[in-house]
Every structure is written in C-alpha cells, then in structure tokens.
Amino acid sequence: MLEVSRWRRLALAIAQNPRVHSLALGLIAVHPLWALAEQGVADPEYNPYLYLDWLPRSELTPEERARMPAICSGAFVAPPRNYPDANLPPEDAPLRATAEQSRLLENGTAELSGNVHITQGYRQLFADRVDLNRQNNTAYLSGAIELREPNLLIRGASAEVQTDSEAASVEDATYVVHDAFIHGNAAQVARQTSGELTLTQGTYTRCEPGREFWRLTGGEINIDEVESQGTARDVRLEILDVPVLYFPYFRFPVGDARMSGFLFPSLSNSDKNGWDLSVPYYWNIAPQMDATITPRYIQYRGTGLEVEFRHLSPIFNTEVRVADLPNDRGGNDDLSQKLIDRGFPQDLVLPYKGEDRWLVNLEQQGGYSGSIWRTDIDFTKVSDPDYFRDLSTANLQVNAETKVNQTAQGRLTSENWRVTLRAQDYQVLENDLFDEFAQLPRLDVDGNYRWGDWQLALQNEATVWRHQDTQTIQFIRNTNDPDSVITKTSDFITADRLRLDYELFWDKEWLWGYFKPGLAGRYLGYQVSDTFLPEGANDTPSAAAAQLTLDTGLYFERDSFAFNHEYIQTLEPRLYGLLSSNAKQADFFDISREEINYPDTEEVFIDPDSNNLLYDTALFTFSYDQLFRNSRFTGNDRIDDADRIALGLTTRFIEPVSGRDLFSASIGQVFYSSDTQIGLEELIEETPRSELAARLESRPIQSLRIRSELVYDDTEHSVNRGNFSLRYFDDDARIFNLSYYYERNDNPLFPDEINNDDDSSVRQLNSSAVLPLNIHTSIMAGAAYDFTLNRELEYLAGIEYDDCCYRARLVWRRTLDNDLAGVVAAKDLEYDQGIFLEVQLKGLAGFGATVTQMLTQGIANFDQREKLKP
Prior knowledge:
disordered N terminus; 13-stranded antiparallel β-sheet; 53 strands; mainly beta; 10 helices; elongated
C-alpha cells in the first residue's frame, strides 16, 4: 500500500482534474481530509500544493533551505526513490510492477488495477489502472496517474507510455520541472524520447504555486532542458491573469542559458528625450559567438539602431558595439531654446541637430594562459562630445565620463623582461577643453632581476607625442549676452620623449621591520618639433640625475584588552629619504619664448602644457600615501630632484581572530633640505616642509567601513583638503553611504558664481541608501549636493519588489542636464528628470535594464548587492 503522504498527493492531483469521473475518485480518496474538516479541526501542516511536490520553507531540511534564495517561500522537492534499481537508466533495469489486482489476458496484455506502481530504473508510474502490452511495449494508464523521472513530475487523468523509450503522452496534465522551478498544466503533455516536453493548450510559469504573477498560456509550448531553451507558438503573456502581450512565436531560456529571440523591451521617459523605447533581439550565432540587435525609438530625437557582437576563441576575446541615430531632431531642451531665443546661434547651442549621431566601440583581449604575448584593444569613438549626455545607450555597456579611450597595445613577457608597444589617444567629451596629446606610439622595455635580497629594475620608455598643430574651440562666456560667444585657438608643441630609470635596491625584511636602500639613475630627453619654436631655441632639452633612496620602517605590537574584547595594538614608524643631484630642468619651461596674443575676436596662444613639455604629467593629489613615493609627479615629464625626508607614524587596533583593523590612524609630513625644487611650470623656492597629512580608518564591524583624510597647512593654519566617507553593506543587502569632500580653492573657476567671496572652496555631500522593508520590498534613495554653488547635483528615489517570480523597480531621478556643460556657465544649467521602470520576469525576460545601471552609478556597493541577491 502507498504511504499516507502518497495518498494525499494523489488526492490533490485528482482534485485538480476537471473531469467528472476523476473528480468522483478524488472525492472518495480525499474523504479522510474532509472528515477532519467536518470535525472543525484545521490541519496546521496542510499544504494545498503537495501534489506538485511543493514544500514550504518550514518543511525543508537545513541543507535544502541553504540552497534556496531567501526571497522564495518554498521549493519543489521530489520524494526519495527507495525501491530496487532506482538509480539505473530504464534501458539497464528490469520492469517491475505491483498492484492490488492483476490479470493476464490471452492477447498478452496484463491488466493491473488498484494502487498500481510500475518501476523501470529511475522511471516510475503510478495509476489506478494500467493495461500493459508487452508486444508493443506500451502501457495505457487511467485514473489518477503520476509519471516520475529525476527532476520531472507529470500528473494527469490518462496516459500512454512507451516502456522501451522515454516517450509518453498525458491528458489533462499538471507538470513540474523541479530544478528549473517550472510548473504548469496542459490539455496534453507529451514527453519526447529526447527529453523535450510539448504542452498543448497549456501554461508555463516559474512563479511559486498560488502566486503566479506571470505565465505563458495557450497554443503550444516546448521545453527542452537539454538545450536549455523553450519555444512558444500562438501564446499570450498574462500578468495577474490579465493578457498583456500576444506572441505568434516566442523563444525563451530554460535556466540561465541564453538563446536567440526577442528580449523584453526597455522603456523610459525623460523631459529631454521623451519616451525612449528599445526592443533588443538576441542572436545566438554559435556557442562562441552572439549578437544583440536593438532598434531604438526616441520621441524627440528619432529612430536609431544599436548592435553588439561578441566572439570568444582560444586566443582572442572580441566585443564590437556600434550605434547610429540618423538625423537627430535635437530633443526637447528648454535651456537651449531660451538661448536661441536670446539670439545665440543655433549651430552653437544645438550643433548636432539634423546630424547623424553614432558610436563605435571595440574591446579585444588576445593571448592565452601561459603565453608570452598578449594584446589589448580598447577603442571608443563617438560622433560628438555630447553623445553620451544626449543619448546615453539603451543596451550597450560603454564607459564614458569626460573622455573615451582609444588604445591598442601588444606585450611580450619573459622571465626578466617585458616589452610593450602601445598606441593611445583620447576623445575629450567636454566642449570647453582642448584635445589631449596622443601617444603614437609608445615603447616600454622593462627589466627586473632579483638575487636574494638584491633587486635591479630597468625601465626604458620612448614616446612620440602627437597633436594637431592648431585647434579651435567655441563657447559662451555670458548666457545673458548674445555677443559673448568666445572662439579660443591654441597652438600645440609636439615632441618625442626618452625616459630611462635604472634602480638597484637592497630589500631586506624582518618580522620587526624592513630596510630598503637604493641607488637610481634617471634620464629625460626630448626631440621637440620646430613648428612653433623661435629660431635658435633648444629643440633637444634633456636632464639627468643620480639619486639615493631609503625606505625603512619598524613594527611594534602588544596584546591589549578593552571593552571585553581582546585586540592587538601596533605602532609603525616609517621613514623615507631621497637625496638627488640637480637635474637642471629649466630648459623644459616656456620653450617657445613667445608672447600670448589676444586679438579682439579670439584668443590665440601656445598651449601652456606643451610649452612646458607636460604631456602626461601632473602633481599627485597630496595625501598620506604620497609621502613615501619616489616622485611627486604622475607621468614621466619631470625628474623629482627635491632632497627630502618623509616621516610617518601609523597605529592599528587589530582583531586577532579576523585580522580586521578595528581602527587605524596615520600622520606624516615631508621635510625638504633645500629651498629650491622642481615644479610643473617653474622652480619652487622657500618650501621647507609639506602640508601635514593624516588618515583615519575604522572597521568596527565587518559590514561598516569608515575613512577620513585631512591635509593641513601648518604654516597658514588652514585645512587645504579633507574628506570623510562611511560605507555600510551587510549580508541582508542593506546599504548606507555618506561622504563629504572639501578642498580649499583660492582661484575658483567661476568667480562670478560664488555667492560668498570669502569661501570659494569646493564642498560636496553625497549620500545614498538601500533599506529592505521586508524580505521582498526595499526602498532606495540618493542625493548629491554642491555647497559651493548651493545646488543639488542629483536626487533619486525608488522602490523595489523582489520575489521568486519577478522583480520590479520604479525610480525617480532628477539630475543636472549637462548637454550644454562647457558651453554655458555652470550656474545656468537646468535639470532633467524622469521616472524609470524596470521589470524582470524571472526565467523569461525583463525590460528597463537602464535602471540597474543608474542605481549602480548612483549608489556605492549596489553592484555588490546585485551579486549577493539571487
């Protein structure tokens, strides 16, 4: 006889059958449950979906609960197979049958009735009656039937099964694919020999039983677990029982695999662009090759197309992205129209109206594990600097801030040497900035040898710096004055650069400290283009220096106990010294010796960076970490020959078990031994010491990080720079971020825009949070405020609902419209706002992926939350 739980499953399966004779059998079988109901006693363990192998979370084992997402209230769990040969394939196992009654007919057909159980390897059949024909290997099942295989359950009123294959056909069926979290019902379910399920006039969903937010219904649905894909013909998508879309043909993934077919559209609305609709089509060309083709309609701009192509091979990994929007209609921009109405030329305010807007992006990585060669290409080019501000991208992942990279390089690596050949340029995305210098090409030959504690580093770099000789930009100086359109022209001096850095170190470490003295030789030389040099100027300036360095530190520690906790306290003094010969770099300054010229209508001058041979070099932003560098400069256009000693002191409080820094504090300063040192554009005098740099860090609990840095000028008794940040992110996906940045600025970029002339400092506050209200619902918000100009930079607020079936996000965002950034004054920029919706039907598709991108950019650690959540 079957155990009680089996009877309950059968009874509930019968109860799902609309046919009268099956319903009668169900009423008889379920009588004990009715008897309980008549007694007025509710069964606290009652599970209305037991017939689907559905178990609520409370009935799962700890191991099963650990494997399922927290947002799911249960799982499909098949009962154990505890009969002979249960783990064998059907073709390798004998056919076994048990029943309350059996009869063998003269034609060779066996009739089994009453609690029939047939097994053949891992396949099981249950039914009220089975007619088994051994001649054609066919079994006809009737009554409350049940067909089981690993990861599959099909129930129905009648069925025909081929016992020598995996083919079966079940009428009035319900089905479950356990691991894929799929279930539904159908007028007929056909199980093919290949393992494919065909549903006729059926339903398909990956929602929990009784909570079907969405389902596919009608027509014919095929589910192929082997290929991890499904197809649907003549079906409709229903959300909350309401038909929303009809598909004559539709393909969808089963599991995590991707396949060809239309993806759900992306839809958003903003003041600037109006409705923005894109409908991606995914093309699975080959196992190592695919493409996504996305037609896009933007209400106030026009219709365009985006294409992404990806190819993976043993040697190269390639991604190509292109986008095109022909004949841009200009968008709905109130500020631009106001400027045009005031008399500003339209070709300056809306320079791309009526033009083709396009993007090209290529990323490729070449080489394989263990190879001595590698290649890297990262190339992005857009039709104009405003492309990303105006259009962004609907379906393409392309990084763009103030410039885009255009780089191709190859590298050869041996045990001690690495040779890199690179070509690199940038496209600047700011209208009021000149282009940067290109490296066409750059060759680096670097060697590294180590003998015990001795180390030799050999760095050789040769770069050809290129730029167009003359460049002109145009912008509006005063948005209230149509005659204030400024044309700015600059000439650029190009050069070839050779930089050599050879260093020998003795690198000795002990448990209580380290000692690292070194000897270095440095050379820097240029071959300068004569285009803008006066006659007789030195076109081959060079400099060299010999240097002694010392980097040493000590570690002291002690065990301590406070607030009922043990911890380790350390004290870590550090000293860094540099002694250098004079590099004599005065020839690098003002090499053109030309006066700046200001005509009535435009400014023409030699670019100050190129005039001072500054191609990739600037001063590091001073902080505690910069105290112990061998150079104050980024890049290779200066040899830092300032004799100095840097002193630093760090203390840490460490948790012994985890090794986490509960608290750490550092402070340090640089002391110079002479009054003259090299700067970016001149020699600097009377600088006996640097600012005082301090840093505080704390991680009192695993989820919380606190950090603050301060740069203090002890000669003027002023704070020159400071920041504070707090990051909280825990296992429950709660996020809270708070940061503040301050920088003293004696020369503001926009002096007319500062309300308080006594304080032109840069002061910005950023905050963001994600707070789960319960296991399914979270709210999120973010804000960025600029205290310098007393304005908000960005506000966003949203809500998310996430369960086993679907996820929905609704976000409102208000941000500065930067379309005219660099063309008009910052104070005149207006705001753009919109409401964005993202819905993901889990196991089917989703739309509105730009919402996730927006939240990732606006909320720190949001990308980590996406990895943490299922």
